[in-house]
């Protein structure tokens, strides 16, 4: 009786490059796999072979001996070992005249040169080289290639028959990918995100997305904390490292899955005031209002909706008479509630649809979540009011960035993407992944008006801390509760630059900041946006504006706790800072009113001209 034994040859998995095509993010190095055909190893050699294999590859002797003495055609001893080890085995086989029964075949091992960089995007592979997460999983069919084989004709006992020896079918290597992620921009973003999460004690981490609104390219997408792609199953924080040995398998799995999760696309949150950009866009497009009608709106500290009074965040000192631009700069809730009422549920929801907020973006990464909105027919006056200023619904960070990219690029919906080229391993032919533009969401005119108002938010409003000297930056801050009655907050900043021809939309989302800087978007998230823009705009070769060459000056916040309001104002003014305080009554004795709280706290570095909030 004759039989054919097949040993497979693993193909080399495709390389993953960053947007420049030069920096390698994932590569397969050549290693080797050792298998045995027990029937081809002489009885008297079995123990000697088992001893050598277990010593050389640091394996349990009894387990290896079982495999070597088994009545099976082929057994795997060890996978993905470095060549120096297998060369040692080859020498030993020659010296001991053991020429059949032990097979050494070429294999590949995945390696990530930048360890933790972009870990939640790139993902990792299992021991069989199959993609398990991120790009590695999403594009597994492109990357994995096709297995080859070595066929051997043997008799029933496994002995070789005839002269034909081995039939060799070569493996076909996987295709290479070029991502839209730029290694330099990703590194800048990760640096500032990590700093922000540590400084502000963000208990649930954070994420940042940088998207080119013109073509949908994701230039960076970072989640903190990250993990080492070369060791995806190892503990990734000092605390986990200390407790790892005592944790149950279920606890370990939960901890690992939490860090593998790409929060920017897989987790929904309440966007808060950043969403006022959507309401403003819809209202301008529908001709309900304009940017600079002086005194068009009046903030009295709150607004009555179906018998419910909804307060402005500054109810104790109402904003008074405002234009739309001023309302956005002040982030005044009642104005946007009023606009929502004028738009009505049907029209408002038609814009949610146009901005693609009721469906997933379709980004080419696994695990994208959808938004959570009430069904249109369930939306009453109070629900419409809260949606208008960004509360009581949830979206993902990628949905928000995609929606605002339509505002930034002149009004056209665009699909985000992470892979831009696929390179054929056999022919080197390049397949370009097409840019996918959708319908017109708002007119160019509306787009320009919203961008102009966003610029005012950064130059004079709540987004002041995102200013970068010499660049025209627009933005919007947001603060929202993370769930109902959790006492946790999500703080965010969304920025667009440069305003006259946007090349980058940046969204910073920080989950539950519990540090001394508080949890307001303007104080916590906006400075991170400013830091990121200050480095990526020069890198993207965005020209500085002539008039904006003055350098931003950093100052340390002085300590004004316990001081009188008069004294505190004077100290802050001397340091080039502005005092902002919340007083119920206009008649106030500044000399006998004392400061019990300040944000940011003393000793924090801020830009000159920043606001210091006093209580």
3D architecture notes:
The chain is elongated and about 100 Å long. Helix 7 runs antiparallel to helix 18 and helix 11 (276-285) packs across helix 16 (444-459). The chain folds into 3 domains: 2-179, Penicillin-binding protein 2a (Domain 2); 264-548, 3-Layer(aba) Sandwich (Beta-lactamase); 553-615, Trypsin Inhibitor V, Chain A, CATH 3.30.10.20. With 615 residues, the protein is of the alpha+beta class. Strands 2, 3, 4, 5, 8, 16 and 17 form a 7-stranded mixed sheet that branches. The longest helix is centred in the middle third of the chain and has 22 residues, at 333-354.
CATH class of the largest domain: Alpha Beta
Count of discrete alpha- or pi-helical segments spanning 4 or more residues: 19
Main sheet attributes: strand count, strand direction, barrel closure:
7 strands, mixed
Uncertain residue ranges: none
Global structural class = alpha+beta
How many domains comprise the coordinates?
3
Q: Give the overall shape.
A: elongated
The CATH topology of the largest domain: Beta-lactamase
What level of helicity do the residues show?
25-40%
Instruction: Please give the radius of gyration in angstroms.
Output: 31 Å
Number of strands: 26
Rounded average pLDDT: 90
Specify the CATH homologous superfamily of the largest domain: DD-peptidase/beta-lactamase superfamily
Percent strand equals 15-25%
